[in-house]
Each structure stands twice: as C-alpha cells, then as structure tokens.
C-alpha cells in the first residue's frame, strides 16, 4: 500500500489524480518499475485541461488498436506538434476521445499536415463520392450519413487541435477566435454542400429544379460555434416540389451526420413553405416581414447550391435590409427584441448565461446589429455579417469610439472562447458558465482557456474575475455604445472618435423608442451644457438613463420629466449623487418618470422620497398609525393656522408619492394602496381639524363643541384611490352649558374652515372634502348634532341614505362622539327584518338611473372602471344590497369593506364562491386600473384607455411587460368585467 501511495504521489506531479493512473501508464508503457518513462509525453499530459481525461483517451486508443500503439507512442515522443495537438484534444473533449477510439488511425491527421480550409468541401465531397459539375453523390442513405459523419467529425477535430494545441505546447501556432470561428463556418458550409449532393442523389431529379442554400445567423456571419444549429433559408427555381424534397433531405442528412439544420428563419417561420422562389421571397419581405427578420438578414450568405440563385436572393433582399430602420414599426419591434434577450433566462442563471444574460454575447450582437441597421443605410462599409468585423467598421467609421470598439470586441472574443471550450467537452450545446461551487469545472475551463494562477489566486479565481470583468464591460459598453455619441452630437466640441451628425443622432434616438428625437436632443443638451460638476455627472448618468427610459411606455415624456426634476432639484446637493451611486434608484426613477405624469410634480416637491427608491422596504413598511402620529405632531408645532395646514399638506404629499412609487414599482398590492391612501386622508383631516379647532377656540374663548368627522363612501370603506374626494359628514356635541345653536355655529365654522383650507388651490393633487351625503344634501346644514341626525333619519330617512350609511366610519375628531354616532345609525343601515319589496325596487331604480344618467357622455361602458358594466359601482351596489337585506341577521356582513362584505356573503351562503370570485376579481382589477390610469394621466381617470401609449402605460403600471400586446390586457379587462356583470344581473337585478 505504501508503494502504491508513493507511485500515485509520483504520478500526481503530472496532474494525474485518478487511482487507476499508474495502471494505465504501465499498460501504455509510459511508466516502469523505476518510475516515469517517455516523460515528455507525461509533461504534455500535465498541461492539458484534464490530465486524467487525456490519459484515459490515450488508453482507449491503445485498447482499440494495440498493434499501432507503439507507432503512436513513438510519434508522441518525437513529434512535438502532434503531441501538443492530440493530447490537448484528448484533455479537452471526451467526444473526440470517443471518435478516435472508434477510428484509431485518425490520430495521424493531427500530425500537422492537416486539411486546409479551402479543401474542406472537397474532403466531404470525396466522403460521399460527389463528382461532376453538378456534384451529385454516388453514396446515399445510411451509408452516406455514416461516411459524412466520420469525415465531418475528423475535420472538426482538426479545428479543435488548431484551437487547443498551444495550451499544451506553447510554441504551437496560436489561432485566434476569429480564425477558429471562420474555420468552423467554412466546415459547416462544406457539410451543407456535401449533404446537398446526397440530397440530389436521393431525389433523382437534379435537372428539374435549382436550389440555393442561404446561411443565416452565426454560420452566415462566419462566426459559428463548435455545436450549434445552422440556420438556413432555401431558394428554389423550377419544380418546387422537387426543390422541397431536396431541401428536406439536406436537413435530414446534415442533421444525422453533422448538426441540426434550422429553417425557421424562413418567411412565416415553421408555418411557411420550406422553399420559395426569388419572387416569393421578395413579395414576402416587401409586404409582410417584421423588423427582426431584416435584422436576421444582416448575416445572410449563399453557401451551397446554385450560385446564381443565391446571389439573386442577396440582390433581392439586401436593399430592403438597409431601409428597415425607416419602417413605422421599427421602434416597437426593436424594443421587443431587446427585452426578449433576458426574458428567456431563469433569474437564477442570468449571471451565468454567456449568451443571453446581462453582459452576454447577445448584448454585443444586438448593439452591433442595431447600429448597423441605423447607420448602414448610408455607409456601405458597415454591411458586414461578422460581429467583430462590424464592430471594427463601426469604430473606424466613428460611430463608436475606437477604444470602445476594441474593448467590446475583446470581451466578445473572450466570452465566445469560453463558449467554445465548454461545448468541446462533450460536443453539446451549452452557454452556461460554471457555478461558483463547481470548482473542478472552473479549474478545467481555466486551463482549457489558457488561464493560469496569478498573484496568490488560483486559475479558477482568475477565470471568475475575468468573466465578471468582461461581462460588466460588455454591459457598460452596450449602454455607452448607443447613448454616449448622442451626448457628443449636441456638444460644442468636435471629436474624431464620435462624430454623429444631427440626422444620425435623430435616427439613433428614434431606433431606441423616442418619438421626438429633436426634443430629446434639446433635453440632453440642456442637461449637459457647461463645465460644471453637475453637467459632468449628468453626462455620466444620461447614457444609462436614456437606455432605461427607452424601456418605458413614454421615453419622451420620461426624459422631459427627468429634465424638469433635475432642474428643480439643481440646488439639492445629494440628488445627482444618489442617482450616480445607487443604480437601483436611477433605474426605478426612470420607470416612474417614463410611466406616470402623477409622480414627477410630487418628486419635485417631496424629493426625500427618492432616497427610499433604493430600498423597497422603506417604500412599503410605514405603519399607518406612525404616519398619522407624525402628521399630527408636525401640525401641532405650528401656531399659525396656514402653516399648520401647509405642514399637513407636505406630509400628505410625501405619503402620496411614497405609496404611488411602491404601487408603480410593484412592491405593494391594491388593497394596501387603498388602505394607505385612506389612512393618509384620515390623518390629514384629524390634524387639520385639531389645528382649526384650536384657532376657533382661541377666538371664541374656549371650545364650544366637540366635533367628529364620519368618513363615507370610499373613505369610510378604506378604499380611496389617488384622485378620490373625501366624502364625510360632520357631527357635533355641545360643550357643557353651551346651547345647541351656539355649538352648531362653532362647529360649522370649524367644518367650513377645514374644507376651505384643504380645498384651497395648490400644486399638490386636490384635497376636496365632499359633504353632499349629509341629510338634505347641499340644502342641509353642514353640521348637525347627534340628536338632529337621529331625528332626521327617524322621520325623513330614505332607503338610499341607509345604503350610504353602510360605509360610515369615524375617521377624525372626537372618538367617543364618533362611536356614539355609529351606534345610533346601526339600526338604520342594518334594518331589522331587512328590506321590503318596495325598498328593493327603489334601490334597483336608483341604480338604473345612475347607470343611464351619470355615465359621462361618450364614455365606453365596457371600459369605464367606476360606472361601466361590471365596474366598481355594479359590484359595490350588489354587496350593499346583500348587506341591507341580511346584515341584521348576519353580523359578519356589518362591515364597510366591499371585499370583507363579499367574504361574509359567501360564508353565509348568500353568494356562491364562483359568483363572489367573479365580483372580487373585477373589483380588484377595476380599482387597480382606475389607480393606474390616474397615475399615468396625472389626474383622476375613470376610463381605461383603449389604444396608444396611454393604454401601454396603464398596462405597464399594472405589471404587464412592454413586450406583451396591451390589447391583450384590454381584452382581459373586458372579459373579467363581463363575467362580473353577469353575476350582477342575477344577484342584484334578480
């Protein structure tokens, strides 16, 4: 055992850790009793990404062809080039080990002679015996697939040897990413040509049709991976039935032998004809193609089949590609493509996805392609398929900085190299960087990429650091690539590196979603003018903010709002610093400004809320009682009545903005929003009432009466929206020794002063106190005593007034008086025995009148959130009718909350669960939509927009992704309220 341990320890100095290593070495004649033999081979093994894997590969080759093993071992000993290439391949790919074990003599093709790229096609033609001018294969069927697979895999192994040889032998030629990608693409071209030759042989009709194969995607751009679908489009001429059979056969042969062939980029995708004529393609792209299809055509390249037909395809589609940026739907389709990149990546993988994650390959490719579409219309030098070639052309043409172009290309090559190495392991498609805990995988990938330890860090740690650095650089430059030149376009200082003309800057802004590029440029200029520190910070912020605003429903309005907020807060020292240093704040502010007209004015007047945007908990965790206490304490500090009410307004403004931000950002639910808004209203009324009462008492020589404020309607139900008035009633109780007349005069002055002070014009959203639900309405006194209310309801009260009292709740003033008022009205709103038939008919009559008379002229009943079919009024009246008829016998129905009333009705078997759910869903949706529409428009809005940016903004405020069709959101609203209306018809109208 000790000898065995020493042997393994000796083998370990060559990186071999497998317990079977010594046994394999001895069997291969690489280890003797005295220790290692052929040490040069063992040293080469130690340099591979996985020495154990490389040794197992050599052993499998030896076992598969023992007679030729001595020849191979001697060749490895003497031929440095073969040694580096073969052992690098074996230590990097188990798939190539399988290939060499199945085809033992194939190791000879790695001795350095190799197959030149220009001979790839001929080599694969020979494999299927395709001869003559038309290249029809003599071999077909399973035999053709077998031969083509072996020949293709052998050539692919040669490419891998070129790619990896320097990892083992430092003196070996180093092939760049660009060269390897081009070799892989040329090999794919050759495979398509050979597969086409087999397809023609199987069709037996080579003279009746012509077919051209157009490579798309990475193959078209000559930047293919080791393992990737090859995207193609087929063009045919002559007998299209024959051409289609040939195309289908090509896809099958290539798929079984080499790689999957994907033709879904063809017109109409998988539902479209597999082969079309030139005219068919031209007609489709002229009439039906979407912007993403023209983006895909950037990389189109004829690779197989009829050369004249292939060139004709390019001549047909290329002019349309370079006019795509002029299309009306260019902006929304480009935006949808940009967002789609990350949407398909699970959140737990987004930081590891080389291809689709933030700072991944798609960021580079999309940025480059969009710039090509925008600027390639006038600059033919940008019309290139390769991403790195196009980047170089963009840098040389001044569309991006030369340094930025070089750095982005460097990072792109780095990530593509990692992608290649990961795919080589098992020749499987993957784009996932190893997780932090996958130390063996990280170590292997670092060695395969030629990354070693440095400065006390392991190779795996260096790799992780490099990966994050390149991903962050890509994300930063992705943003800068679009927006930094826009700053230069409005700068007074010319620059060689960035020289966008005004027209080009307009085009770039339009491509990013701005409907008024000229206005956007003016805002940029105003924000970045001068040499102040503020202008410098804005210049650093704007690239990111322009990108963020471009992802909102209204980029133009958002940029204008940002300018107004920035100018208003120019004297606030921390404002720009918070945006610069806290990325989440800038991102969330952009979302708010590009979605809502309600928020910007409040931000200017309550900027301290901006600090909360960095922490969702701060936006959502304030206790209503704490808010009320803070507001009352602030008001008490002011002796002058005007200042006291101004303090109440200020805190209300702060809370309104806090709640709106949490709502728009999706950090809270609709019931919490309504309760928060109602609580704020109650606190404002309480604080204002106290301040006015103090002032009146000082003038009158004492408090002549106590006053209570009874919330009605949505305030009473804690269901207020952003633009809701506060429906209230005032009740008073004379102080000891004070007559009712004097007490009422005193309380009347208090009530009128509260209404006047809160309702006075201001820049804040209105604070209207509505007392029209009081007895006798507008003709009645604004304040009554408790006994006066009792007498009125006993003698004159009508059924609709009992219905209005269902939501009555003390919200401010004297708590004991408020409780007595509630005790007094309970028998009225919960009448013993319920309602008689005449009273039920009266409620239905009033509801029908409301439906016909109060709906605004021109309003759409299907989308009016308050009075429309299945809207708030429908549901609330239904619940209230159930309460009036049954609350005397069902105590749980005695609630001011619509949602609690629905739940109690289900529990008492007064509503079926399905009916209650239909009403509940519609009420919550209508309330959310009403709030969202108010936030979007900046004023009370009961009508859901039915088209345009306002509809998109309301949908976005409701959490619908901008990539989704807002029309679907509109259909969902109509369907939900239609179901609710059906329930109202049979429950309310019986």
TrEMBL record:
Ranges for domain PII-uridylyltransferase/Glutamine-synthetase adenylyltransferase: 337-482, 862-987
One Pfam family linked to the record: GlnD_UR_UTase
InterPro entries assigned: GlnE, GlnE_rpt_dom, NT_sf, PII_UdlTrfase/GS_AdlTrfase
Region feature Adenylyl transferase, mapped onto this chain: 494-990
Molecular function in Gene Ontology: [glutamate-ammonia-ligase] adenylyltransferase activity; [glutamine synthetase]-adenylyl-L-tyrosine phosphorylase activity; ATP binding; ligase activity; magnesium ion binding
Co-factor requirement: Mg(2+)
Region called Adenylyl removase, residue ranges: 1-486
EC number(s) given by UniProt: 2.7.7.89, 2.7.7.42
Biological process terms in GO annotation: regulation of glutamine family amino acid metabolic process
Entry keyword Transmembrane: no
Top-rank taxon: Bacteria
Residue ranges occupied by any Glutamate-ammonia ligase adenylyltransferase repeated domain in the UniProt entry: 85-312, 587-822
Annotated SUPFAM superfamilies: Nucleotidyltransferase (SSF81301), Nucleotidyltransferase substrate binding subunit/domain (SSF81593)
Any single GO CC term annotated in Swiss-Prot or TrEMBL for this entry: cytosol
Keywords: ATP-binding, Ligase, Magnesium, Multifunctional enzyme, Nucleotide-binding, Nucleotidyltransferase, Transferase
Catalytic activity line of the entry: [glutamine synthetase]-O(4)-(5'-adenylyl)-L-tyrosine + phosphate = [glutamine synthetase]-L-tyrosine + ADP; [glutamine synthetase]-L-tyrosine + ATP = [glutamine synthetase]-O(4)-(5'-adenylyl)-L-tyrosine + diphosphate
Its biological purpose: Involved in the regulation of glutamine synthetase GlnA, a key enzyme in the process to assimilate ammonia. When cellular nitrogen levels are high, the C-terminal adenylyl transferase (AT) inactivates GlnA by covalent transfer of an adenylyl group from ATP to specific tyrosine residue of GlnA, thus reducing its activity. Conversely, when nitrogen levels are low, the N-terminal adenylyl removase (AR) activates GlnA by removing the adenylyl group by phosphorolysis, increasing its activity.
Family note: Belongs to the GlnE family.
Name of the protein described by the UniProt record: Bifunctional glutamine synthetase adenylyltransferase/adenylyl-removing enzyme
Protein species of origin: Actinokineospora auranticolor
């Amino acid at each position: 055992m000790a000898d065995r341990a020493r042997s393994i320890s000796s083998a370990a100095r060559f990186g071999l850790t497998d317990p079977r290593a010594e046994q394999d070495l001895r069997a291969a004649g690489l280890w003797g009793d005295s220790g290692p033999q052929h040490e040069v081979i063992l040293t080469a093994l130690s340099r591979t990404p996985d020495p154990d894997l490389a040794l197992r590969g050599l052993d499998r080759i030896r076992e598969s062809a023992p007679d030729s093993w001595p020849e191979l071992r001697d060749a490895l000993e003497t031929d440095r080039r073969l040694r580096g290439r073969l052992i690098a391949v074996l230590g990097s790919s188990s798939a190539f080990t399988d290939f060499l074990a199945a085809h033992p003599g194939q190791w000879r093709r790695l001795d350095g002679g190799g197959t030149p790229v220009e001979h790839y096609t001929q080599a694969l033609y020979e494999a299927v015996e395709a001869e003559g001018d038309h290249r029809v294969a003599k071999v077909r069927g399973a035999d053709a697939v077998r031969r083509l697979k072996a020949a293709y895999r052998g050539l692919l192994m040669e490419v891998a040897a070129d790619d990896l040889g320097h990892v083992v032998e430092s003196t070996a030629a180093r092939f760049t990413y660009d060269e390897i990608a081009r070799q892989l693409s040329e090999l794919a071209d050759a495979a398509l040509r050979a597969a086409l030759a087999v397809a023609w042989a199987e069709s037996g009709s080579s003279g009746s049709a012509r077919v051209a194969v157009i490579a798309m995607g990475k193959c078209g751009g000559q930047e293919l991976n080791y393992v990737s679908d090859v995207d193609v489009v087929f063009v045919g001429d002559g007998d299209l039935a024959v051409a289609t059979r040939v195309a289908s056969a090509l896809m099958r042969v290539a798929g079984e032998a080499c790689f999957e062939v994907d033709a879904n980029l063809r017109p109409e995708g998988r539902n479209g004809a597999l082969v079309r004529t030139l005219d068919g393609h031209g007609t489709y792209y002229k009439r039906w193609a979407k912007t993403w299809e023209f983006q895909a055509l950037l990389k189109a390249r004829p690779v197989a089949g009829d050369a004249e037909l292939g060139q004709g395809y390019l001549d047909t589609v290329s002019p349309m590609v370079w006019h795509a940026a002029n299309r009306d739907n260019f902006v929304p389709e480009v935006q949808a493509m940009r967002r789609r990149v990350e949407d398909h990546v699970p959140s737990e993988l987004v930081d590891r996805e080389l291809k689709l994650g933030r700072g991944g390959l798609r960021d580079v490719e999309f940025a480059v392609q969009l710039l090509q579409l925008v600027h390639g219309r006038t600059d033919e030098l940008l019309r290139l398929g390769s991403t790195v070639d196009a980047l170089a052309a963009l840098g040389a043409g001044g569309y991006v900085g030369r340094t930025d172009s070089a750095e982005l290309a460097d990072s792109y090559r780095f990530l593509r190299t990692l992608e290649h190495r990961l795919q080589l392991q098992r020749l499987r498609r993957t784009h996932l960087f190893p997780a932090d805990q996958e130390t063996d995988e990280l170590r292997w990938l670092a060695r395969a990429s030629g990354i070693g330890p440095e400065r006390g860090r392991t190779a795996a740690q260096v790799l992780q650091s490099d990966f994050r650095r390149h991903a962050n650089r890509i994300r930063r430059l992705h943003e800068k690539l679009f927006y930094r030149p826009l700053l230069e376009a409005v700068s007074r200082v010319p620059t060689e590196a960035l020289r966008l003309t005004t027209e080009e800057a307009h085009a770039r802004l339009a491509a990013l979603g701005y409907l008024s590029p000229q206005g956007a440029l003016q805002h940029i200029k105003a924000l970045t003018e001068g040499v102040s520190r503020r202008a410098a910070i804005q210049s650093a912020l704007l690239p990111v903010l322009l990108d963020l605003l471009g992802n909102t429903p209204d980029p133009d309005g958002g940029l204008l709002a940002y300018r107004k907020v920035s100018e208003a807060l120019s004297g606030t020292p921390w404002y720009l610093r918070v945006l610069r240093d806290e990325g989440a704040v800038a991102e969330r502010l952009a979302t708010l400004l590009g979605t809502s007209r309600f928020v910007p004015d409040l931000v200017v007047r309550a900027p301290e809320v901006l600090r909360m945007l960095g922490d969702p908990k701060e936006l959502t965790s304030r206790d209503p009682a704490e808010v009320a206490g803070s507001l009352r304490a602030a008001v008490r500090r002011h002796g002058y009545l005007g200042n006291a009410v101004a303090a109440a307004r200020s805190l209300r403004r702060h809370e309104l903005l806090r709640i709106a931000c949490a709502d728009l950002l999706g950090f809270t639910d609709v019931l919490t929003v309504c309760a928060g808004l109602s609580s704020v209203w109650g606190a404002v009324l309480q604080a204002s009432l106290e301040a006015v009462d103090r002032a009146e008492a000082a003038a009158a020589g004492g408090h002549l009466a106590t006053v209570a404020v009874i919330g009605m309607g949505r305030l009473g139900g804690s269901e207020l929206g952003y633009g809701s008035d506060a429906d209230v009633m005032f009740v008073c109780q004379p102080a000891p020794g004070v007559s009712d007349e004097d007490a009422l005069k005193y309380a009347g002055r208090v009530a009128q002063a509260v209404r006047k002070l809160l309702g006075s014009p201001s820049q804040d959203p209105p604070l209207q106190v509505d007392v029209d639900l009081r007895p006798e309405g507008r003709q009645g006194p604004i304040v009554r005593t408790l006994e006066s209310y009792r007498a009125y309801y006993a003698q004159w009260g009508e059924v609709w007034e009992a219905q209005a009292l269902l939501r009555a709740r003390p919200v401010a003033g004297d708590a004991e008086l408020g409780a007595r008022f509630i005790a007094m009205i309970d028998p009225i709103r919960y009448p013993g025995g319920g309602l008689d038939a005449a009273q039920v008919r009266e409620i239905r009559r009033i509801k029908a009148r409301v439906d016909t008379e109060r709906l605004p002229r021109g309003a759409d009943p299907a989308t009016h959130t308050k009075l429309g079919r299945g809207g708030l009024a429908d549901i609330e009246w239904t619940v209230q009718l159930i309460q009036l008829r049954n609350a005397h016998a069902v105590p749980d129905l005695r609630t001011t909350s619509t949602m609690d009333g629905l739940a109690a009705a289900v529990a008492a078997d007064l509503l079926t669960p399905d009916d209650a759910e239909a009403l509940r869903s519609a009420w919550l949706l209508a309330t959310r939509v009403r709030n969202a529409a108010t936030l979007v428009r900046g004023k009370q809005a009961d009508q859901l927009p039915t088209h345009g940016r306002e509809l998109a903004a309301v949908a976005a405020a409701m959490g619908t992704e901008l990539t989704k069709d807002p029309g679907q959101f509109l259909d969902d609203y109509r369907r939900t309220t239609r179901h609710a209306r059906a329930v109202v018809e049979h429950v309310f109208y019986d």
